[in-house]
Amino acid sequence: MKRKELESFLQQVDDFEKPKLLLEQYPTRPHIAACMLYTIHNTYDDIENKVIGDLGCGCGMLSIGAAMLGAGLCVGFDIDEDALEIFNKNVKEFELTNIDMIQCNVCSLSETISKSFDTIIMNPPFGTKHNKGMDMSFLKIALQMARAAVYSLHKSSTREHIQKKADEWKIKMDVIAELRYDLPASYKFHKKKTEDVCYFMEQHYQEKLPRRC
Ligand SMILES: C[S@@+](CC[C@H](N)C(=O)[O-])C[C@H]1O[C@@H](n2cnc3c(N)ncnc32)[C@H](O)[C@@H]1O
């Protein structure tokens, strides 16, 4: 499937009806989702036939894209029942059978699912307002869950902090792309319509590269 084709499918994914500010509910735009997933698939081969986890899956934009690119199974995790209801409707409309979803607080996922996924993809809450540190909690859990790699979107202003943490955790981190993120109009407290955000994709090669390189 071509990237443009994926993007046009993703434009049909329904998003949050009443986004909850406290949960930082804003969807990844189809263009960003398609670029991110296409790169993970084409450049890193971390989607096709892989077991994928999508942390803070919301209405399923990333999970649905991964499933369309041939994931073996993609499991979405989100705390919010309303978001998962929309996710479920989206999955039915796209007639996808390689997707599942779990309602839970990602921060309380138990260690029993450690290394149960090949790849983790996510657009986590940025943790900027009420949820300070949430982005890092999601990252830490994602790295525990993934056997091979974690691909995650973050604000560019947090890059240095994340790099420091990656060094501390002995994880190799690459910034794979920088994108301009359009915040939805529903978040009225944002003065600017767009904000510079980059996505980092963190390669986690614990066995192959025990030390950062
Ligand atoms: C930025 S949105 C991303 C939504 C979706 N992944 C996408 O890319 O369109 C963050 C998501 O994280 C969920 N979330 C926030 N806190 C959470 C938590 N503690 N556990 C699980 N999900 C959480 C929100 O409900 C929301 O759906």
UniProtKB/TrEMBL annotation:
The record's GO molecular-function terms, alphabetically, read: nucleic acid binding; rRNA (adenine-N6-)-methyltransferase activity; S-adenosyl-L-methionine binding
Q: Which CDD domains match?
A: AdoMet_MTases
| Methyltransferase small domain: residues covered | 48-134
PANTHER family for the chain = RRNA N6-ADENOSINE-METHYLTRANSFERASE METTL5
Q: Report the family membership.
A: Belongs to the methyltransferase superfamily. PrmA family.
One of this protein's Pfam families, by short name? MTS
The gene that this protein is the product of is METTL5
Write down the InterPro entries for this protein, in alphabetical order. Answer: DNA_methylase_N6_adenine_CS, rRNA_MeTrfase/Polyamine_Synth, SAM-dependent_MTases_sf, Small_mtfrase_dom
Please give the name of this protein: Methyltransferase-like protein 5
PROSITE patterns (alphabetical) = N6_MTASE
- From what organism does this protein derive? Monodelphis domestica
GO biological process entries: positive regulation of translation; stem cell differentiation
Q: Name one GO cellular component term.
A: presynapse
